[in-house]
Amino acid sequence: MENQALPPYTRKIGLPESRVLYTVLRSPHIDKKSREQFEMEIKKKFLVIKTERHELRKKFFRLKRQRIFGAQYEILFSCKTRSDKGKLQRLL
Asked: Which of 10, 23, 33, 37 lies 20 to 30 Å from 84, alpha-carbon distance?
């Protein structure tokens, strides 16, 4: 998703990133100075996508279809609705 241009209705908010380095001995016996280093990077992004209700299924399917190797993602939905006071009073 990094290289793709975001649609105009989408905002990307960067979250803190972290990096962990591991150093492991290659051989526990004779070559104590021979070591291997591994690194784990955690990058977090927060996407805000504004959409209409009928387009939500298409956008969710598009996000779900992207298979990024070694990546995990979490999708949270929230929606805001406005109620018309006049309609509400008539119903009650």
From this structure: 10
